[in-house]
């Protein structure tokens, strides 16, 4: 299978399914909060002259890449460097003005491919993981491993990495950093091996590195803040589509879409409804959509993708 809109930078996931969710087909004003290599954005802009898109990303590499790719759309494309949690304010988007919002969470293949960015568990890579390529003021993965206390580290490995031996791993990190500060992937790989023993597989390493990345970038907190701001920015009939690759993120999205679709959100025991008393919209994916087997074979990253959609009333 050839992956539509794939580039050397990133292969976008479930493009056809995302396009089917995002209406209107002729195009409108869209916001892509996770521009990456601009694959989904290009598919949206190709809908026709009525399609306009504001694209945000924290990562300057993404804005550079997508900026070049989407330059042919002229003023129909507006790039904004921002955390998507602040995108509505950063791009000056008014309430009720967007026809569609897309979040394709996580990181791009490019970010993993470049060792210096420090997302990879290939040996010898620096432990950085900051999506925004921030200055030293923003703590890197190495800073967290060298400075957090044992309970905080255990919490990260447990909550974001579902690591059963989270406390042991945190204890080993603290023991190791007494002798030498954590600086490269080798240090964390060594801590993982000492915790999980020879059982440690690539999937374990990926899970634990991902947990640290989520903490470094405040990814759960950013999503929590972003959801409500994007809901308010949607026009009546506008669609919110989210691709999540982590169960915590998918649960946040599922719960938000469910709550917004309820007609009453009063606490139990209220005799008379005192809340908005009407749904804010409808969940349009009863169950999360997954990539086809064909796509998963061609792009293993698509395997964990969960796509959900919600339409504003
Ligand atoms: C999976 S990639 C998106 C790929 C994109 N859909 C495409 O077609 O190429 C995720 C992108 O979101 C960005 N990102 C993740 N969290 C972000 C946040 N809170 N704010 C802004 N950008 C974020 C990452 O830097 C990365 O470039």
Number of helices: 13
Biggest beta sheet summary: 7 strands, mixed
CATH class of the largest domain: Alpha Beta
Q: For the CA atoms, what is the radius of gyration?
A: 21 Å
SSE topology string: HEHEHEHEHHHHHHHEHEHE
Name given to the CATH homologous superfamily of the largest domain:
Vaccinia Virus protein VP39
Helix content, binned percent: 40-55%
What would the CATH topology of the largest domain be?
Answer: Rossmann fold
Ligand identities: S-adenosylmethionine
Poorly predicted runs of 5 or more residues: none
User: Which second-level CATH architecture of the largest domain applies?
Assistant: 3-Layer(aba) Sandwich
Query: What is the 3D form?
Result: globular
Mean pLDDT: 96
Counting DSSP E segments of at least 2 residues, the number of strands comes to 7
Strand content: 5-15%
Spatial order of the strands forming the largest sheet: 3-2-1-4-5-7-6
Please tell me about this protein's structure.
- Helices cover 41% and strands 14% of the residues.
- By secondary structure, it is of the alpha/beta class.
- The chain has two domains: 15-110 and 219-312, 3-Layer(aba) Sandwich (Rossmann fold); 133-216, DNA polymerase, domain 1 (Orthogonal Bundle).
- Strands 3-2-1-4-5-7-6 form a seven-stranded mixed sheet, sandwiched between helices.
- Helix 3 links the parallel strand 2 (52-57) and strand 3.
- Residues 10, 12, 34, 36-40, 56-59, 62, 83-85, 104, 106-108, 131, 222 line the site of S-adenosylmethionine (SAM).
């Amino acid at each position: 299978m050839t992956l539509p809109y794939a580039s050397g930078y990133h292969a976008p996931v479930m493009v056809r399914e995302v396009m089917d969710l995002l209406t209107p087909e002729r195009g409108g004003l869209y916001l892509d909060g996770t521009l990456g290599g601009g694959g989904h954005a290009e598919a949206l802009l190709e809908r026709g002259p009525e399609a306009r898109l504001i694209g945000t990303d924290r990562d300057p590499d993404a804005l550079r890449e997508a900026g070049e790719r989407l330059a042919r759309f002229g003023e129909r494309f507006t790039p904004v460097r921002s955390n998507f949690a602040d995108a509505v304010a950063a791009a000056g988007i008014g309430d009720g003005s967007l026809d569609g919002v897309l979040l394709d969470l996580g990181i791009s293949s490019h970010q993993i491919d470049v060792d210096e960015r420090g997302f990879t568990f290939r040996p010898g890579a620096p432990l950085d993981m900051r999506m925004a390529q921030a200055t030293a003021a923003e703590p890197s993965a190495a800073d967290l491993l060298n400075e957090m206390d044992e309970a905080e580290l255990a919490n990260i490995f447990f909550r974001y990495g579902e690591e059963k031996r989270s406390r042991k791993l945190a204890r080993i990190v603290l023991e190791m950093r007494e002798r030498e500060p954590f600086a490269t992937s080798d240090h964390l790989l060594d801590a993982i091996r000492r915790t999980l023993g020879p059982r440690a597989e690539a999937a374990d390493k990926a899970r634990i590195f991902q947990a640290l990345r989520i903490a470094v970038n405040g990814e759960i907190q950013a999503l929590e803040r972003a959801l409500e701001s994007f809901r308010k920015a949607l026009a009546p009939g506008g669609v919110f589509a989210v691709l999540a690759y982590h169960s915590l993120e998918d649960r946040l999205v599922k719960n938000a879409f469910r709550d917004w679709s309820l007609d009453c959100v009063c606490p139990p025991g209220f005799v008379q409804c005192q809340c908005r008393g009407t749904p804010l919209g409808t969940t349009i994916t009863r169950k999360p959509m997954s990539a086809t087997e064909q796509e998963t074979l061609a792009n293993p990253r698509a395997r964990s993708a969960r796509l959900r959609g919600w339409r504003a009333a």
